[in-house]
């Protein structure tokens, strides 16, 4: 069976493995989300329509990336695959207020929902396989985190 380190140099796998962040021996999803934060900083300067276009394109490309890497690693949703964390975090930050406080709150909320996997995320994670399933569960975690982030902002 191939390991993530065996395939990292292929461009598709390099992307789905989060530029190597998914190879972290400890909490690869958190490492991938950290890289997503770094990429979010320039993305946050985009107009809302451009940002949404990046989300849609990233999701569609992610389905293919995650499927191909999942196939190469001969298993569903290997922990090293973190492209889905990128999109989940970026969705969390859709319409987020500016500033490091909100970037950190978004990071924490997304990681909590991604790890906790409340209903229906847990069902999708177990039943829906392939690149679409890998992407969808993190997108839903991002949607939950987005709603809570916006509630915190409006209450705060």
Structure overview:
By secondary structure, the protein is mainly α. The mean pLDDT is 96. The N and C termini lie far apart (50 Å). α6 (100-116) crosses α8 (130-155) and α7 (121-127) packs antiparallel against α8. It has helices at 4-7, 11-16, 28-43, 48-72, 83-92, 100-116, 121-127, 130-155. It is built from eight helices and no strands. It has one domain (28-155). It is globular and about 50 Å long.
Question: In brief, what are we looking at here?
Answer:
By secondary structure, the chain is an all-alpha fold.
Task: Give the SSE order as H and E letters.
Answer: HHHHHHHH
Helix % is: over 70%
- Number of β-strand runs: 0
Overall morphology: globular
Tally of helical segments:
8
How far from one another are the termini? 50 Å
Quaternary status:
single chain
Biggest sheet: strands, sense, closure? none
Could you name the ranges where pLDDT drops below 50 across 5 or more consecutive residues?
A: none
Class derived from helix and strand content: mainly alpha
Overall pLDDT: 96
Number of domains: 1
Which percent band covers the strand fraction?
under 5%
Q: What radius of gyration results from the CA coordinates?
A: 15 Å
């Amino acid at each position: 069976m191939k390991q993530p380190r065996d395939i990292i140099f292929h461009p598709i796998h390099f992307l789905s493995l989060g530029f190597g962040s998914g190879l972290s021996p400890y909490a690869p999803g958190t490492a991938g989300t950290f890289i997503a934060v770094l990429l979010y900083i320039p993305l946050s300067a985009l107009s809302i329509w451009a940002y949404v276009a990046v989300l849609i394109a990233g999701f569609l490309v992610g389905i293919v990336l995650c499927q191909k890497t999942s196939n190469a690693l001969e298993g569903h949703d290997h922990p090293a695959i973190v492209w889905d964390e990128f999109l989940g975090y970026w969705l969390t930050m859709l319409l987020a207020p500016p500033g490091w406080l909100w970037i950190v709150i978004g990071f924490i909320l997304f990681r909590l929902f991604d790890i906790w996997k409340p209903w229906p995320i847990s069902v999708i994670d177990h039943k829906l396989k392939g690149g679409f399933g890998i992407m969808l569960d993190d997108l839903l975690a991002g949607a939950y985190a987005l709603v809570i982030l916006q509630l915190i902002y409006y209450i705060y």
